[in-house]
Amino acid sequence: MLVIPDCTRNDAGRYNLILTNAAGEKTAHVNVRVLDSPGPPINLKPKHIDKESITLQWELPLIDGGSKITNYIIEKRESTRKAYSTIISVCPNSTVRIPDLAEGSEYYFRVSAENEYGIGESVETTDPIRASQAPTPPESVYATDVTKTSVSLAWTKPKHDGGSRVTGYVLEAQKKGGDQWSHVTTVKTMDFIVKNLNENEQYIFRVMAVNHSGRSGPCDSKPVTIKETITMPEFDLRGICQKIVIARGGKDIENTMKLTIKMTDLTTTLINKDSLRRDGGEFVLTATNVGGFAKHIFNVKVLDRPGPPGGPLVVSDITSDNCILEWAPPADDGGAEIDHYVIEKRESSRLAWTNSASGLTDTQFKVNKLLKGNEYIFRVMAVNKYGVGEPLESAPTIANNPWVPADPPKDPEVTIITKDSMILMWKAPEYDGGTPITNYNIERKDKIGLRWVKCNKKKVKDLQFKVTGLLVTHEYEFRILAENAAGLSLPSNSSPFYKATDTLYEPGPPGNPRVVDTNKSSITIAWNKPNYDGGSEITGYIVETCIPGEEEWTIVTPPGGLMGTSFTLMNLEEDKEYMIQVSAVNSEGIGEEATIPVVLDKPGPPKGPIKVEAVTTDSVLFSWTPPEYDGGATINSYLVEKRDTSTQTWLVVSPNHARTTIKASRLKNGSEYQFRVTAQNRYGKGPSLTSGSVVAEYPFKLPGPPGTPSYTLLLKNPGG
């Protein structure tokens, strides 16, 4: 018996057995299969490559693990990353096409085989594979110089390199009228001198661009006659990308430590070392030969980091822990669009700067987390694609609140008294301390007591308050304190003493309380007179609100009550639910409350029409107006959809769009579309607003032909 513990697929194979004694030997063999996951596939390589896909092929693993290979798993990673991601988990064949790749990007791939015992080892491509295709042909081929035995050719680079760098050019020649093309050379440059040609013969030349995916189609020259010619000079400017050069005009350029001119038989190169923005200007190129004179003027542009933002750096709205910075865009953007701004701060007593914000696109920023009383210096830098520009610094700024506590409120007095409550009114402070009043604290003191007791549990912003929980026949005085960001004011003068009296004939509740209108910040309610007036004339109504779950009601009607039977509650907070109650008042006091339910709903449709702002061949920019009715809750987003008018299917452009303007992209050139927008709040989706039909095309067309030519004067001898 032979025992192999912990065997793996590598222990599979043929085992030879040999028995030997004095009379001789006998042999036998055993074929051993180890049941395991398979080994790695072999010969993984690309079969076909184009600009957005790569087709891979491979062969079966040498070791199948004793079971049939049933599937392959394919993974990929970009050459700039280390992590693989699974792109195909079910592949029964040994070839697969991988789509949706980024043109020009390089990828590694690996493949693992799978059998009934699991997924085996993977095989990885040894080198990255670039998603590319053969380039387009060169744009043009032309002769720059001709002698009696040679021609100097030049050509322009392809309009598209196929996603892979052009590695060279193939040049071929053919005598005019012939049918055979002859290989001349393969070069990496975009020019070549063809020699040993026959004088007075006509030739046609063609050039093909080559990259890793193959050879482009040819670009043919016009027929060239081989003979000595004298012409005016011409400039070959193909080596200057978009005519962007670095030089300053106004005088002849000579070789210096900064400027260098290099010349070969075919090219002249001007090199400006360590270029600065001030090196921009006008560059004039001239050439002269016996045939004449040529001149070319370049617009000079130097690309660099941006200059400092426009100053001054204004620091405003300063408090003890934050402030607001404002600045202007740089006068010099470095020749590239400003991408964002970086904000930094430091304490005046320190040298180290700390980052406050990065990636900021606005020219305003609120700096938080300052320490009260500390002095700070701020700076802002603009950033473009070439780097971070020079900083703009602020003057030293001390983090401190500019305000003080408010003056005391004035003239507290009681307007309505019942057996256990009183309605208290007062006047606002003459000076709010430089910041808004955020709360009033109401305090009471029993005539037989010694201390002041706070009456309100939550913030009070109105100038009246209903004090409850009073003892019948007890007398009370009241005082008010105003609160702002700096703290509490001194207390107001105390009110006179008021006695809580027992009321026997208060009116009944108002009838049929109801909501008649709502929007995002107000609710209008109405009611009928009470069936029972308590034996005394109704002198007014009091409306109170309360947040569900809280016990304290707030009076929202004017001081002294309301005479009508309807009221609009203003300045309500969005997305909050309110309980509302209304009470009638007569000479004996405040009657029983009637509660009004507030119903919140889905929003109405956006306000039309949908306005088309801009149209191209593959996109439409359009806008709309928010709904007039928001259902009593904030419009948190819009569902935007599109439909090709040749179908009935609506497709989602954006499921949760926050703004009222959107650009719908990926449209088909020439197709007709409709768009619709649906507002959404916390209670659901409202009705939709649909646009008219829009054709995805540019809003302009080719001009018509000119009119018929005619002459106005005929000369016998124009040169005479």
Automatic annotation (TrEMBL):
Where are the membrane-spanning stretches?
A: none
* UniProt keyword list: Immunoglobulin domain, Repeat
PROSITE patterns named among the record's database cross-references: FN3 (PS50853)
Gene Ontology cellular component annotations, sorted alphabetically: M band
What InterPro entries does the database record attribute to this sequence? Answer: FN3_dom, FN3_sf, Ig-like_dom_sf, Ig-like_fold
**GO BP term, example:** sarcomere organization
Q: Residue limits of the Fibronectin type-III domain?
A: 40-134, 137-229, 308-402, 408-503, 509-604, 605-699
Q: Which GO terms describe its molecular function?
A: structural constituent of muscle
| Organism field | Oncorhynchus kisutch (Coho salmon)
Query: What is the protein name for this chain?
Result: Fibronectin type-III domain-containing protein
